[in-house]
Design a protein that fits this description.
Order of helices and strands: HHEEEHEEHHHHHHHHHHHHH
Structural class: mainly alpha
Largest sheet: 5 strands, antiparallel
Strand content: 5-15%
Number of helices: 16
Number of domains: 3
Number of strands: 5
Length: 437
């Protein structure tokens, strides 16, 4: 995104972004809840608890069970009583069942699982309590990915990434002191850099090279000149990515270099939305993890607290073992929060190595010490010049002030007169004492 586009860019989502996101979230969550999750749970449960050996399971009005000798006369809608053997029963349908008609009972919003391995009583699952959170998590995740692929005019996440590109460029300018034109050259993609004017690019490279010139070391050795590293035969892509980036990294910090690289990759995503992982990395690393990491950690602890409470209530027998839906819901809630926490940690920037940080602090302290030494020397020279050049003037001024004070009769009548009188009286008393002896 160019500077001209940035001026036109607003920083608030439009109503269309929320409508598209909400529509995707509701529709995808409903798809998972109504079709994908029931089939997935059914397949997992049947494979774990189906009868072993040569016993075969049949499908009767959506119910998986073993048929009886009367199974041949089964007709859809006629009931399942006498048709199936309820020793093995896997009913993941939304049809209500009654004891009189089907041989077992359940509500339309319940699933029934019965197998000898699970005990004598059937397990009743309530998908609204146990699996709605899982459907919402899948719906939210897929909706975010789709809005990354959509154009920024309607894509919620695509708009966020484009906005974060502008914000990250601004942070780079503040941290480095480079102007917008230089930041644009540093963060532009490889294809766009090749189309730029070579003289202009070389001018920018020279400025960055000189700006990142290291301080002269104790041996007096100077750094490498730009002209010895860059000429007409130098590949500008290789020079920027291999040489200039390394110089910026050493002069500023690893984090500044990471911002430049991630911004460059994100601008490739702006031209090809299918490369959404590049845009997602910029948004997660330089915005989401910085602003919401504590919130995600808090949610993970919140989910753990709910899971502990639910398990505690289950231990007190307030949740029967035949109805584990609430426990499943708490497990999926905590699992989704831990998944979000793990996803956030993947994009969290690592702390800079301690030895590198100490080296930079040492260099900064050395520079500050040298600066203070120079300032103290200058102040000493100035003070010496002031004292030596103005000592006679200062003496003259002091003599004038004393003379003016003593020449004033009012001053003599005051404290000075009192002090002189005291001195005279003391001297006279000492003289009289000496004469009497």
């Amino acid at each position: 995104m160019t500077a001209k586009d940035a001026k036109k860019h607003t920083y608030k989502h439009g109503i269309q972004h929320y409508i598209v996101l909400l529509g995707l979230l509701v529709s995808i969550s409903y798809l998972f809840y109504s079709f994908i999750i029931p089939r997935a749970v059914e397949g997992a449960v049947v494979s774990l608890f189906k009868p072993e050996g040569e016993k075969e399971m049949g499908h009767f009005d959506g119910v998986i069970a073993m048929g009886t000798q009367e199974a041949g006369r089964f007709k859809p809608g006629s009931g399942l009583k006498g048709i199936i053997n309820t020793e093995y029963l896997f009913d993941f349908t939304n049809n209500p069942r009654t004891e009189a008609k089907d041989g077992y009972s359940k509500k339309s919003d319940e699933w029934v699982v019965r197998a000898p391995k699970l005990g004598e009583e059937a397990i009743i699952l309530q998908p609204m309590i146990g699996f709605s959170i899982l459907a919402f998590v899948f719906g939210a995740g897929i909706s975010m990915v789709l809005t990354l692929i959509f154009p920024a005019t309607i894509g919620f996440m695509a708009y966020k990434v484009d906005r974060e590109i502008i914000h990250t460029k601004s942070k780079i300018r503040l941290q480095t002191g480079f102007n917008n034109d230089i930041v644009e050259v540093l963060t532009v993609s490889e294809k766009q850099l090749e189309t730029m004017d070579r003289d202009h690019v070389a001018k920018v490279f020279r400025y960055v090279w000189d700006r990142t010139e290291p301080e002269e070391d104790v041996t007096g050795k100077q750094g490498i000149k730009f002209s010895s590293m860059f000429d007409d035969n130098t590949d500008i892509l290789e020079f920027r990515d291999e040489v200039l980036y390394l110089r910026i990294k050493e002069f500023f910090s690893d984090f500044v270099m990471k911002e430049i690289i991630d911004t460059k990759e994100a601008q490739s995503y702006s031209r090809n939305r299918l490369q959404f992982m590049k845009g997602l990395r910029l948004y997660m690393s330089h915005h989401f993890t910085e602003k919401y990491s504590n919130n995600v950690t808090g949610l993970a602890y919140f989910g753990a607290a709910i899971l502990i409470i639910v398990i505690g209530v289950r231990g007190l027998k307030f949740i029967p073992p035949t109805r584990p839906s609430l426990i499943l819901g708490a497990i999926f809630l905590e699992g989704s929060m831990l998944g979000l926490l793990a996803f956030t940690l993947v994009y969290t920037e690592e702390e800079e190595r301690m030895d590198r940080m100490l080296k930079k602090m040492e260099d900064a302290s050395r520079n500050q010490l040298e600066t203070l030494e120079d300032v103290s020397k200058d102040m000493h020279k100035m003070s010496v010049a002031l004292v030596e050049g103005n000592s006679d003037l200062i003496k003259t001024k002091i003599n004038q002030a004393v003379t003016e004070f003593l020449s004033n009769p009012n001053n003599l009548r005051g404290e000075v007169a009192d002090e002189l009188g005291r001195i005279v009286m003391t001297a006279l008393s000492k003289g009289i004492s000496a004469g009497s002896k």
